[in-house]
C-alpha cells in the first residue's frame, strides 16, 4: 500500500491544479487577453530576455536611432579557469562528463566575452510580413558591450545577401526588420581590440501564439534562409 502513496500525492496535486484552473478560468482568460493586447500594441508588458528586461515599445523607439541607455551596474563574478583544450563533449553518463561539459560551456562564454545574440518579435503592420523582429546583443554578468566596436548581421538571400553593419554608439547594438518566415541570423561581433567572434541565432516565431493572430507561424516551420 505504501508504494501507492507517491502516486496518490501526485494525483492529488494534479487534481488541485486542474480545480484551480477551472475555478479561475475566467480570470486567467482575462489576464491572457490583456497581455496579448498590450504586446500587440508594442508596450506595457515587461518580460526578461537574458539579463536585460526590455519592452517592445522601447525597442521600437531605440533600435533604429541607437539611443543610449544607462550602464548596468553589477558586481563582477569570478570565473573559473577555462580549459581551452576541449574540442568535443563526452557522453553525459561517462566518468567526469559533467566537469567537461561545464568547462566547454565556460569556454564558449569566454570566446564570446559573455556576449550573446537575442531577439523578440511583435506582429508586423508591413504588408505580406508576419512579424517585426528585433535582433540585438545582450551580455552575461561577465560581459560588457563597451568592448564591442560593431556588429555585422547577415540574414541571407531574402535580404539581398546584405551584411547589416551596426556601430556601437552607446545604446543597444542591433537592428529591426519585418519577416514572413524565420531566418537564421549570423552575426560577427568585432571588438575594439581588433578580435572578433561569430554568433548565430534562429529567429524563431515560437511565441506567435501569444499574439493570437491568424498569421502566426506554426512551431517547427522550416527557416526561410
Helix content: 25-40%
Topology-level CATH name of the largest domain: Immunoglobulin-like
User: Poorly predicted ranges (pLDDT <50, ≥5 residues)?
Assistant: 44-54, 64-79, 213-223
CATH level 1 name of the largest domain: Mainly Beta
Strand residue percentage:
25-35%
Order of helices and strands: HHEEHHEEEEEEE
Question: What oligomeric state do the depicted chains represent?
Answer: single chain
**Number of domain modules:** 2
How many beta-strand elements? 9
Q: What structural class do helix, strand and pairing data support?
A: alpha+beta
What does this molecule look like?
The chain folds into 2 domains: 1-40; 47-69 and 96-225, Sandwich (Immunoglobulin-like), CATH 2.60.40. 25% of the residues lie in helices and 25% in strands. The protein has helices spanning 5-23, 25-40, 56-62, 97-111; strands at 47-49, 52-54, 115-123, 131-139, 148-154, 163-167, 174-179, 184-191, 196-202. The chain has a 4-stranded antiparallel beta sheet with strand order 6-5-8-9, with no helix packed on it. A 3-stranded antiparallel beta sheet has the order 3-4-7, covered by helices on one side. The chain starts with a helix and ends in a 23-residue tail after the last strand. 18% of the residues are buried. Residues 44-54, 64-79 and 213-223 have low confidence and may be disordered.
Amino acid at each position: 500500500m505504501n508504494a501507492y502513496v507517491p502516486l496518490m500525492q501526485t494525483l492529488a496535486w494534479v487534481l488541485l491544479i486542474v480545480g484551480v484552473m477551472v475555478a479561475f478560468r475566467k480570470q486567467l482568460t482575462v489576464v491572457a487577453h490583456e497581455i496579448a493586447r498590450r504586446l500587440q500594441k508594442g508596450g506595457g508588458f515587461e518580460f526578461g530576455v537574458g539579463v536585460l528586461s526590455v519592452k517592445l515599445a522601447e525597442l521600437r523607439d531605440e533600435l533604429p536611432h541607437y539611443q543610449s541607455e544607462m550602464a548596468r551596474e553589477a558586481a563582477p563574478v569570478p570565473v573559473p579557469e577555462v580549459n581551452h583544450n576541449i574540442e568535443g563533449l563526452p557522453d553525459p553518463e561517462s566518468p567526469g562528463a559533467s566537469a567537461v561539459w561545464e568547462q566547454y560551456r565556460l569556454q564558449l562564454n569566454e570566446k564570446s566575452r559573455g556576449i550573446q545574440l537575442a531577439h523578440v518579435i511583435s506582429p508586423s503592420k508591413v504588408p505580406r510580413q508576419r512579424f517585426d523582429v528585433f535582433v540585438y546583443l545582450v551580455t552575461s554578468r561577465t560581459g560588457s558591450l563597451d568592448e564591442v566596436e560593431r556588429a555585422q548581421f547577415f540574414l541571407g538571400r531574402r535580404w539581398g545577401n546584405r551584411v547589416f553593419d551596426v556601430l556601437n554608439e552607446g545604446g543597444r547594438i542591433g537592428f529591426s526588420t519585418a519577416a514572413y518566415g524565420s531566418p537564421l541570423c549570423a552575426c560577427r561581433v568585432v571588438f575594439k581590440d581588433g578580435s572578433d567572434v561569430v554568433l548565430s541565432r534562429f529567429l524563431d516565431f515560437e511565441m506567435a501564439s501569444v499574439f493570437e493572430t491568424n498569421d502566426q507561424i506554426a512551431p517547427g516551420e522550416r527557416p526561410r534562409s
